Give the backbone structure.
Amino acid sequence: MAIYFDERRKTFYLESRDLSYVFRINEHGFLQHLYYGRRIPREDVGFSVALPDRGHGCCLPGSDRRQSMDEYRNECPIFGRSDFRESMVDFTFPNGVVGDFVYDGHKLYDVKPELKGLPSVRGGETLEVRLKDMAHGAVIGLYYTVFEDLPAVLRHAEIENASGEPMKLCRAYSFAVDFPGKRYDAVTLPGAHMRERQTERTRLGHGTFIAGSKRGVSSSQMNPFLAIADYAATETQGEVYGFNLIYSGDFAFRAEVGQCEYLRVIGGLNDYGMDKTLAPGETFVTPEAVMVYSDEGFGKMSRAFHDLYRDYLINPLWAKKPRPVVINNWEATYFDFDNDKLKAIIDSVEGTGIDTFVLDDGWFGARNHDRAGLGDWVVNEKKLRGGLKTVIDYAHSKGLKFGLWFEPEMVNADSDLYRAHPDWIIRAEGVEPCPGRDQYVLDLSRPEVRDFVVEAVSRVLRENAIDYVKWDMNRALSEIRWHHDYVLGLYEVFERIIGAFPNVIFEGCASGGCRFDAAILRWFPQIWTSDNSDAYARTAIQYGTSLCYPLSAMSCHVSVCPNHQTGRNTPFASRAAIAHLGATGYELNPNNLTAAEKAEIKSQVDEYKAMEGLVLGGDLYRLHNPVEENLFAEMLVAKDKSEAVLTAMRPLSVANGESVILYPEGLDENADYEVLPQKIVRKGATLMRAGLVAYFPFGDFGTVTYRFRKA
Ligand code: GLA
């Protein structure tokens, strides 16, 4: 049994093979957190509660002065009752009174109930604990789901206004965890457009550390991921607690070390712009938070996230299915294309193994540049004579599938849609809306706008034989603060469109990776990782992304050099080797490559196909972090350890430099492996301990790839 309630001790034990999460109903009726970490026996852990006499300045009524909520480790900290740290939930009633939330029953589910209107991880055994506000009758349901085989806990809260008065929510986060002690680092994934998800480690001190987004999207600037790690934690050692939100809008994580030297971590919907009043009887559902525990560093944490998302979040139809190997025309043509140019690109990939042609931005309306056309999802016949059908038929006649780009959430002022419905955009009365890339955001909180978007995209999909959609989103939301209704509208739109076309694979995108989050993965098995396609820049981006998201979720393309984002030259082989650490593809015009490069595409695709199963379902071991050293290395190992691949890049060439030895990880110690290209056969233990000498090609940004197969 994964969830167990000990009646006598009033204690809940949430357990998986490697994990225990324990809390109890204490003598005041509060949910007191007791333990979160490596699996422990199901014993009484109440002895670990510290209640020293600090002479607290504010204590619980009817108790001695040691009993302050400021001292408690609390499952659902609420402002106002002697706890002055960050609260998980905050609200007001018209009379301003804040009451105690105390235990009011619990319930066990065999299958996790759906979160109304929000995507979530599919789960089994789930616990709901209800807390009741003694002053007003409001109710908070705390939900916990555990997995037998994974060290993960899913959490969210449902806040019900069971009073007779309006209840103004000021904060409604998804979880709170109080950690003993204060010696922790926070690891986050900050960045920018074309520099997404750079790994950053920050030492936590007293006060509150905040990481979040207010942009209406989960954002390139900060990903909804946080890891709390002990000071000594590394890739392979130490305790690490990962948190990720299944949410695509404004979020926040807060980590506060308080006066009693505990670390409190809370996270969920950003309360900065919270504008929600619950009418009597109304319920607010928070996004789901995923918590992962590792006692073997960041590597084990990431592998748990990857398994969880591949097995329980991403649509099983696509999760481990080979993905299209695309040729995308964006960097090849930008807006400047016609039938002939597209046909030439299609012709050029014949026999390479590339199996899908993706037509990017510019095929519709007056879209000859990015200042016009968004919203008019009708083919531009001046550009594409004979309509989309001619290009689609041509691609199909050459054995390629066909993919198409949309940016359905947006509208340009210069478009028929905007001229007809200027009031459909997100705007504030009397304020000129801020443009972003010359476009505005359609207000998806409105049903008529959602209906338009659903029909506009669905019609194109109904009328054309489309196998793949790239769904883009290229600006932040401005003017309004409360973006949650937009996000809920967006999820409804996803469900209606993507649910209706189950055989079409949808790739997410938002100026590259500006909305790379787990909620998107619920519908989109892969996401364009970054508009930066430079192989070296990608090592850091993909490394950071992999902390939480599986490689199969990262769309990665080979492009030309000098690279369009950095101006850098990297070897063609390196560009492919790095793009192969994800759902690979090409974003170039092969006709502009050298004959040698063009000829190389086929062998690159063959190599990718040989390792595709590892990308889709293997275990990831990060060996070297390119942000910290002049070396990047990652290894993918099959679940049954029968094969593996190790890819490394040495960014800067070093004259007469030290020999680089790469130490494989994750192999079966006792098995014999044939290693290519060395053509040696050695035991896993020998390879992992003695290591492999890396002979990087002469020059900068060279890569090496080793393959391991059980002999
Ligand atoms: C965004 C995407 C790119 C491309 C362009 C088209 O920037 O991230 O891949 O589709 O839009 O305008």
The longest helix spans residues 595-617. Residues 665 and 688 are 6 Å apart (CA to CA). The mean pLDDT is 96.
